[in-house]
Design goal:
The chain has one domain. A 7-stranded mixed β-sheet has the order 1-2-3-4-5-6-7, covered by helices on one side. The chain is built from 2 helices and 7 strands, in the order ββββααβββ. β6 and β7 form a beta hairpin. Helix content is 19%, strand content 40%. It has 91 residues and is an alpha+beta fold. It binds zinc ion (ZN).
Length: 91
């Protein structure tokens, strides 16, 4: 996999990501927010959302079970998905 450096959409710090799910999601690895995923169709919405929401999502990412990562979807869908299986579980 190839990492690309980019500002984290949750905390604006430099992080890195690689594409997963046939390029439909970015898998971010942020030292501050830990590992999480963002569906690319909501990335702009996420980056333009309130700091309060971003902080909540960063916190949710921190609190994900160790075998799961937070996946941020279309403004409403926030779920923890297993790292290694394409299986989603609602929070
Ligand atoms: Zn971050």
């Amino acid at each position: 996999m190839e990492y690309i450096e980019e500002e984290c959409p949750l905390c604006d710090r430099i992080s890195k990501f690689y594409f997963v799910d046939h390029d439909n999601r970015k898998f971010y690895r942020c030292e501050y927010c830990t590992d999480f995923q963002v569906y690319i169709n909501v990335e702009d919405i996420l980056r333009n959302s309130t700091d309060t929401l971003k902080r909540q999502l960063s916190k949710a990412s921190h609190e994900s079970p160790h075998d799961k990562v937070l996946a941020i979807g279309d403004g409403k869908v926030v779920s923890n998905i297993f790292r290694t299986f394409d299986f989603e579980v609602a929070v």
